[in-house]
Amino acid sequence: FFGDYEKAWIASENLRATGATSFAGLMFPYFLAFYRGLTALAQWDILRSRNFMKVAKSCLNELKIGQKNSPINLSHSYYLLKAEYSVAKKKHGLAERFFSLSIRHAEEGKVLHEQALACERFGFYYLRRNNHEAAYEQIRAAYELYRKW
Fold first, then answer.
1. Among residues 28, 58, 55, which one has the least CA distance to residue 40?
2. Predicted TM-score (pTM) of this structure
3. CA-CA distances (angstroms) from residue 105 to 43, 44, 86, 93?
């Protein structure tokens, strides 16, 4: 929802409530967990409600199961959500490690748009940390990957 995290949160709640479980056995519940987790962390950053951190942790746990069952399809998503969760917990060393793992796994899986997303998020992370040189490198990499995609 392009920065409208409240709408994104409402949409993820509606999807969850209306039977995303009917897609059991498919990838959809894992994709929902990924984007719901990212949205919960964005909402936590704005509102500082513990509920959002609990939701993000729950989404991480769900993605971890999916990642074990389908590492090629979900490792990059799991590591990106883990990176964002680590940022929220102020564990910056872990965050950087998980951002790098997400980028690497997306590259190995040849998922350009997911690799671009991981680079983009890593770049924004560096901007928030006032590391403009590293931010530029990651955002530039994201731009090139999106262009190729």
1. 55
2. 0.91
3. 27, 27, 18, 19
Per-residue model confidence as pLDDT tens digits over 53-95: 999 999 999 999 999 989 999 999 999 999 999 999 999 999 9
Does residue 48 sit in helix, strand or coil? coil
Helix 71-88 to helix 50-69 angle (10° resolution) is 160
Measure the CA–CA gap between 93 and 86, rounded to whole angstroms: 9
Q: DSSP per residue over 54-111, as a string?
A: HHHHHHHHHHHHHHHH-HHHHHHHHHHHHHHHHHHTT-HHHHHHHHHHHHHHHHHTT-
Contacts of residue 16, Cβ cutoff 8 Å, sequence gap at least 6:
32, 36
